[in-house]
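Standup notes, structure subgroup. Blocker cleared on the shikimate-3-phosphate input:
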Amino acid sequence: MSESAPEPIAASPASGLAGTVRVPGDKSMSHRALMFGALAVGETRISGLLEGEDVMCTAAAMRALGAHVQSAVEDGQAVWRVHGRGVGGLIEPDTVIDMGNSGTGARLLSGLLASHGFTAVMTGDASLRSRPMDRVIQPLSEMGARFEPRAGGRLPMTVIGTADPIPMEYASPVASAQIKSAVLLAGLQARGATTVIEPAASRDHTERMLRHFGAEVVSEHLDNGAVRVTVTGQPELTGQTVVVPGDPSSAAFLIVAALITPESEITLENVGLNPLRTGLFDTLREMGADIALQNEREEAGEPVGDLVVRTSALHGVTVPAERVPAMIDEFPILAVAAACAEGETKMLGLRELRVKESDRLAAMADGLRACGVTVAIEGDDLRVAGSPGHVAGGVTVPVHLDHRIAMSFLVLGLVAQAPVAVDDGRAIATSYPDFVAHMTQLGARLTAGSAP
Ligand code: S3P
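Run returned:
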């Protein structure tokens, strides 16, 4: 995120959201499309790429590592073309690589840097510089790379890579697609098979897209819910066409906005429906949400569909810990839905939320309390006592450089008794640059400034 001044935004009470929106491209897939294109021989053509700040950092990083990355408008649509350098063919960057606000970019890039025989330095914004990198440093060190992070395993960090990484089997302590992907990406350059075992299935875009580029990746679901993923090293990846669907994690904000705002009906086109990403939709349906799926299809190996969402009377539910990986980024907006639902919602096993762009457990609990909602954190669980129509609002909530916290509280402002503002909306551009425009188009009133 840029070093410009904070930009507060306020959301006022609304009714009757209506219209059709195409949400921006999937952030996870966009990072991977650029990175895998940079590792492939020949041209990769990407449409639907998210042109948010996080992904633009990855594009710049791939250029710094020697890939050609360009965009142009073709037939009214932005098309990105990447000319890659082949597996193991990235070159030493002559500048510090700045991954901005992006934890995914930084963790996946660590896997690439670890498996090339040069030295590189990576940094990020204040949020990213506070996030733990030891979760990737540990397995990648076992593969032969060396890391010199700041105290506490934080960025800035020097990575001294190895051109000959050791293939390994890594049992990850957390279900994290970022950790899994970092190890698999380093494994691409290893002589032999590299395996990651994760305790529960996290999003599998790396596995699907690596196969699409020609790698051999085998996933096995074990009886205890764990997943074992193996990549065969040193494949020849070839440039591909990648069609990036809309991001379900961005759609989530508009979905909840329509569910809680009276007399609303909106359509969201082209939303990615990978089952490892749609835990929020299951939870909202259990809460009584009217979300209809239309035009279901498959694009570039990923399920996609259009969603029609109507205002619904929601009730509280318990979200089991097993569902956390499939909706890891959606708890802030689920907490907003919970505040507007009848009864209590319990969200179990949210430990990983503490190491996202902000400590999301604390940020949501503090912000909701400031808006007049009763909330409790018990260990790693969050309880929200819903009270439809009784959210007071009238406050400016700190978002701690976190796009999802900012968008969540702006959605809450649509149904509070007085406007809800966020202290800084700049981070929204990391994942959803058109968020304010899309909300406005649907009939919401978002204005620059703090709560009156
Ligand atoms: C992502 C994985 C998740 C998610 C992040 C995107 C990815 O992080 O929170 O926004 O693209 O791999 P973890 O793997 O750390 O849970």
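Discussed briefly. The pocket of shikimate-3-phosphate is lined by residues 28, 104, 176-178, 181, 202-203, 328-329, 352 (CB under 6 Å).
Next: hand off to the docking folks.
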